[in-house]
Amino acid sequence: MTAVLDQLAHPSDTEVVALDAWWRASNYLTVGQIYLQGNPLLREPLTAEHIKPRLLGHWGTSPGLSFVYAHVSRLIKITGQQAIYLAGPGHGGPALVAAGYLEGTYSEIYPKVTQDEAGMLRLFRQFSSPGGIPSHVSVTTPGSIHEGGELGYVLVHAFGSVMDNPDLLTIAVVGDGEAETGPLEGSWKGVSFINPEHDGAVLPILHLNGAKIAGPTVLARKDPAEVRKLLEGHGYEIIEVSGDDLPGMHHRFAEALATAWGRIRSIQTAAREGGWDGHRPRWPLIILRTPKGWTGPETVDGITVGGTWRAHQVPLSGVRDNADHLRLLEEWLRSYRPDELFDATGAPAAPVRDLAPAGDLRMSASPHANGGRLTRDLDLPDFRDYAVEVKTPAAGRAESTRRLGELMRDIYTRNPDRFRLFCPDETNSNRLGAVFEVSDRGFMETVTPEDVKLSRGGRVMEVLSEHNCHGWLEGYTLTGRHGMFATYEAFAMVSASQTIQHGKWLQEAKNLAWRAKVPSLNILLTSTAWRNDHNGFSHQGPGLIQNVLTQRGDVARVYLPPDANTLLSVADHCFRSRSYINLIVIDKQPQLQFLDMDQAVEHCATGAGVWEWAGTDDGTSDPDIVLACAGDVVTMETVAAARILMERLPSLRTRVVNVVDLMTLPRPKDHPHGMSETLFRELFTDHVDVVFAFHGYPGAIHQLVHGRPDADRFRVRGFIEQGTTTTPFDMTVRNRASRYHLVMDAINNARRLPSGATELKAWCEAQLAKHEKYVVEHLEDMPEVRDWSLGDWAQS
């Protein structure tokens, strides 16, 4: 080890020449991608015709990214370390595309982008162009699991990637603009959860180049001593490198990288071979200070560009129309001496090629960055073994998510290296605490005798940050492992943009044959709007459903299981699935149970169905009204409304339809789960009005049934932003989705009305008035609502 570290820390003159050649080649390719549509190797003088009509991309961060990449490649080649590279400054896309091209991976994946002059021209022309690739380190970029276009998530993805991945080193370059975001500021705490016994390591590199798009960055302008103290306070061992002198920077960074890698290996060896005292290690962190736009134009039109925010994007913006800018661009490109870097055919020359590691050790070819290649199926127990016994529908209550917790407990046991639950300090609150029977919460800070189920060896991930939990799971699944993110429904909106961005990643990955499918991102929302009556309006919001519905149909899945057995069936399906966003919404409180396990499995397989026992429809003719529902609480209200109608208007033919898979409602051409026209008519007819009680915002159902027969006949009741600290039933009343509102809607929209309908409407209004008075006086719901079940009706 000592000899290896010495070799890493002290590159020979030949190695420095190779490092510098690779770096110059990468910089040349980066500039070429931003500017050139012709003359890729400058075989002739540069002219305006060689310049793209639109100049897009981000130069300023790219040379620093390439500099780090070159040195990490040398480390891999010497040590055989498995590593992936996450670029927080996502707009440094051309630098990572250039790296993959120089390593040969790009041409292997995209055979038309050959390693010659024609292939280089294609590489340049495709960048940020119609029919080409984005400017980010996107899903099309080999070696990427982190796009970075929305800043703030590089560290959470990095930490997730190394959990239960002991041999992986993830290099996470944090841009100094990105370091100003809230998610990134919270994500430094990842070192408090990484266990060197069974996890890999993250090496953060804070790249301070001084500027963002239009001004300075906070950390770059702070006193370096303050920045050091800030990061030391998070628990890191700080290594600093700064400058722009060459070859001095190559020597200094090589020494810094050797020191960091040596420290990581020392920590892991001690932990895995019995020499660890159990205290949290001080993991290394490199602070790298280089000029913005390093090696680019220093001045343009007499104005300083290099080292300033003006180098952030396109330093020379008038190249096609300004002869001086065109001259400067050609000088800039030729400063990299491309004739030394590429041979007569345009292929990378030997000194450039030889820096790259071999095969899968190339960071652009690592299977860890194409996690489906490493994915192993979960060893799942039979979910039927956790069933709730249901002899009579809607007669008994159970905490449905508690059964899911028992299922996940046994998944933990069967899959000790590829399954984790991520939850913001709410595992017990969400009734998933059975997992603690087999695993503690993971924690690397001090543990006291008063702590419960907390240890360095735990693999249940709790931290009070939706961003961290969501991002850890993303990194975990994208590198081939399985898990679930569980959180309070309203606060899933904290990380909603992460859900959207991950969905976009999965959508684009489906278009790339070389991207292997990865385990799905499973999100469980509980403590829902309808049962957060005690916490108040801030905790009442079903908005993530709406966000997921906007994703393309080949990715988005939304499930609203009404009880424990449907939840178990849905969860089993989600844990087996690949490359989806599976959103499951169900509350944690005791709730009525409707279906036995066989019924639940059949119901979930279809996604929606008629509950004959709940209505009065005999199937021989169309009903007078269809009562539909999707969501646990509104399903209970719908079943109660149907029973009121059955009791008080027995001649009114009612049909009750429950929807568990929300994506069955669109047409098949709009979503792959969309039910056939025949089944849709069998459930909803094509002309009878439908009173639809929905867990989320009513507009979602109108969106989903658009294009179905006479879609205007759907009258949707759902959450309409009416909430406060109140009682459970009052939440449905305030949002006009209570059983009494549904009964009145049925009367108002039925095809025919038997005698007694007017009296029933008056009774419902009287019940609502009684409720309003009762909750204020007694501080709880009326007994006939609070304790209602079909068992009561059967007894009466």
Automatic annotation (TrEMBL):
Cofactor(s) needed by this chain: thiamine diphosphate
Residue ranges annotated for the Xylulose 5-phosphate/Fructose 6-phosphate phosphoketolase C-terminal domain, each copy included: 588-789
Entry keyword set: Lyase, Thiamine pyrophosphate
UniProt-listed InterPro entries: THDP-binding, Transketo_C/PFOR_II, Xul5P/Fru6P_PKetolase, Xul5P/Fru6P_PKetolase_C, Xul5P/Fru6P_PKetolase_CS, Xul5P/Fru6P_PKetolase_N, Xul5P/Fru6P_PKetolase_ThDP_BS
Record flagged with keyword Lyase: yes
Key word Lyase present: yes
Domain of life (superkingdom): Bacteria
Signal peptide: none
Xylulose 5-phosphate/Fructose 6-phosphate phosphoketolase N-terminal domain residues: 12-373
NCBIfam families, per the entry: PRK05261.1-4
Family of the protein in this entry: Belongs to the XFP family.
Name of the molecule in the record: Phosphoketolase
Name of encoding gene: xfp
